[in-house]
Amino acid sequence: MNQPNAPLPADVLLRAQSLSVRFGGLLAVNDVSFDVRRGEVFTLIGPNGAGKTTVFNLISRIYAPTSGSIAYAGPAGTVTLTEQPPHRVAGLGIARTFQNIELFEHASVLHNLLIGRHTRRETGLWADMLFTPRARAAEIRAREKAEAVIDFLELQHYRDTLIAGLPYGVRKVVELARALCTEPQLLLLDEPSSGLNVEETDDMAFWIQDIRDELGITVLMVEHDMSLVSRVSDRVLAMNQGQVLATGTPHEVQTHPGVVEAYLGTIDDVSSLRRPEGSAVGVRA
């Protein structure tokens, strides 16, 4: 196990420094640095291919950086996250949801949430096989935590329903619930509104705010829906072509000239899309 490093400032939970990732000749992430402060919702935005999900994959250790590092204030002190094996990430208090839902479809909602408790396992193999008093007590605590999350996200109606029988919007909430069952201090949300309708997106916004405000969990999010970003984010980092364009409040970032250009193009690009005056629809000018 790696020894803890120099501690981060008290208000910083995660610090990415000069991250770069190269896939062959493609520089997917280029010298990206940022801090995620404790108790905030920090959101990565940018066009498709900007490198947002690659940064997520670096934090969750799916990828290793070509250069740079990530420092994280874990339960035992600050560690270099990029030196940790992938299977230790959840145990350090980092949970993640995925844009493409990853649930056990032929298990119930409750059982999926109990699977999320594996990082908090308190007993060994033999105790579990023999179902000793200590194992029984640990099972009760795990079920109590799962039931508390079910109540928090108002999933009582679906508690014993198989995932395969649930609508897509409910599945997104169940995946969020499973992540919360690990009792994270940092929650990574990858496109939480993807595939949701307007009402479901509104509900997701409330859950994210409650996770921050009531549970005290720091949220790092990748999101395309700018209305959701504006509603829940404390700070936003905009990326394009693997590089940082701007960091600040949602309003500051969304009005930044470089961000506007990355999404809409230059003024000349936008002007070229306008129909010439006097031309009729369906008629060549």
UniProtKB/TrEMBL annotation:
Residues covered by the ABC transporter domain: 14-266
PROSITE patterns hit by this protein: ABC_TRANSPORTER_2
Keywords, in A-Z order: ATP-binding, Cell membrane, Membrane, Nucleotide-binding, Transport
Molecular function as annotated in GO: ATP binding; ATP hydrolysis activity
Gene3D superfamilies per record: P-loop containing nucleotide triphosphate hydrolases (3.40.50.300)
CDD domains, alphabetized: ABC_Mj1267_LivG_branched
One Gene Ontology cellular component annotation held by this UniProt entry: plasma membrane
PANTHER family (UniProt xref): ABC TRANSPORTER ATP-BINDING PROTEIN (PTHR45772:SF1), CONSERVED COMPONENT OF ABC TRANSPORTER FOR NATURAL AMINO ACIDS-RELATED (PTHR45772)
Protein name per Swiss-Prot or TrEMBL: Amino acid/amide ABC transporter ATP-binding protein 1 (HAAT family)
Higher taxonomy: Bacteria, Pseudomonadati, Pseudomonadota, Betaproteobacteria, Burkholderiales
